[in-house]
Automatic annotation (TrEMBL):
GO annotation (BP), single: pyruvate decarboxylation to acetyl-CoA
Alphabetical list of Gene3D superfamilies matching this protein: 3.40.50.970
Lineage, uppermost ranks: Bacteria, Bacillati, Bacillota, Bacilli, Bacillales
Keyword Ribonucleoprotein in annotation: no
UniProt protein name: Pyruvate dehydrogenase (Acetyl-transferring) E1 component subunit alpha
Keywords: Oxidoreductase, Pyruvate, Thiamine pyrophosphate
Segments passing through the bilayer: none
A GO term, aspect molecular function: pyruvate dehydrogenase (acetyl-transferring) activity
Cofactor (UniProt): thiamine diphosphate
Domain (Dehydrogenase E1 component) ranges: 56-330
Alphabetical list of InterPro entries matching this protein: DH_E1 (IPR001017), PDH_E1_Alpha_Subunit (IPR050642), THDP-binding (IPR029061)
Source species of the chain: Tepidibacillus decaturensis
Domain of life: Bacteria
């Protein structure tokens, strides 16, 4: 069964995908809420990023769930995803081991990288997921994965997630030029959350929307308005089909919104006080929930079961990380290449 998104149009989303997207967005939202709580421990009354249960910076993606689920709904384990420094929603949607991921964020030895990478350097080869950590640095990595897929004659796809600020970096243009030249199965998803740290997009970018840059490379560009998870699904479907069939790269820019600061502890002096409450009124999770119920795809009871599953998985991962041990300092250089 599929659900038509509007009258008189053939644009549809399979109901199973809608249910998957809803449960996944609930899981991501709850996960980020739990991480926000954990990160705040030990950092009050004076906020210090070097102290607390989770030291270092923390960049959460609350509100940006549609960008991740819309495209990851079309990906498999053999497809590559490279994420920037705000990676949790991408990792969860791609199927990264949630327990090991959480342990890594807590710096525990049971983590994906034995606690050595942390929040911005997640890496799970089982599902071909990694984080670049540096703005724009993931695009060349994803382009390399796309080149490998083409050279091996596989129909794998590589996706690079970036913020809109990273579209002004050299890595963006250099990678897309080669990807277009060689018709690589690369998709660059630009998450336009309006700010590059604290700089509004209008003050840093000469064009209105970054998918417009696609024409300079003779490739396809697509724009998704209003943080719409369903439109993101449909646009991504075409991009993935194009990439798998040898049609080359696509740039997708989605107007998405982070409800929190650039990093946890960000005073957000650059934002209007009413901005986030207004965004939350148009919450994408609520939109998909209403769609599922209005089309009688699921009942209220089934919605509750989906939400309970998501919460249970996050709680179990959170407890696993809490219970895990910190690595032995004497073993810090194990599995690390040194010269």
């Amino acid at each position: 069964m599929k659900v038509a998104l509007s009258e008189g149009k053939k644009k549809t989303v399979p109901t199973e995908k809608l249910k998957w997207m809803y449960e996944m967005m609930v899981k991501i939202r709850y996960y980020e809420d739990k991480m926000a709580e954990a990160y705040a421990e030990g950092k009050t009354p004076v906020f210090n990023i070097g102290t607390g249960t989770v030291p270092g910076e923390m960049h959460l993606a609350t509100g940006q769930e549609p960008a991740a689920v819309g495209i990851c709904a079309h990906l498999g384990k053999e497809d590559t995803v490279v994420s920037p420094h705000r990676p949790h929603h991408h990792a969860i949607a791609k199927g990264v081991d949630l327990k090991k991921m959480t342990a890594e964020i807590f710096g525990k030895e049971t983590g994906l990288g034995k606690g050595k990478g942390g929040h911005m350097h997640l890496f799970d080869p089982k599902v071909k997921f990694s984080c670049s950590g540096i703005v724009g640095a993931g695009i060349p990595q994803a382009a390399g994965a796309a080149l490998a897929a083409k050279m091996k004659k596989k129909n794998w796809v590589a996706v690079a997630f970036i913020g809109e600020g990273a579209a002004n970096s050299g890595a963006f243009h250099e990678s897309l030029n080669l990807a277009a030249l060689w018709k690589l199965p690369l998709i660059v998803v630009v998450e336009d959350n309006s700010y590059g740290i604290s700089v509004p997009k209008i003050k840093s970018t000469a064009i209105q929307s970054n998918e417009q840059r696609a024409s300079a490379y003779g490739i396809t560009g697509a724009h998704v308005k209003f943080n719409d998870p369903l439109q993101m699904y449909l646009v991504s479907e075409k991009a993935v089909e194009r990439a798998r069939s040898g049609g080359g790269p696509t740039i997708i820019e989605i107007e998405t919104y982070r409800y929190l600061g650039h990093f946890q502890g960000d005073p957000e002096l650059y934002r209007d006080k009413g901005e986030v409450p207004a965004l939350r009124e148009q919450d994408p999770i609520k939109k998909v929930r209403e769609l599922l119920l209005d089309h009688n795809i699921v009942s209220e009871h089934e919605i509750k079961e989906m939400e309970d599953r998501a919460v249970k998985e996050v709680d179990e991962a959170y407890q696993f990380a809490r219970d895990s041990k910190f690595p032995n300092p004497e073993a810090a250089l194990e599995d690390v290449f040194t010269s």
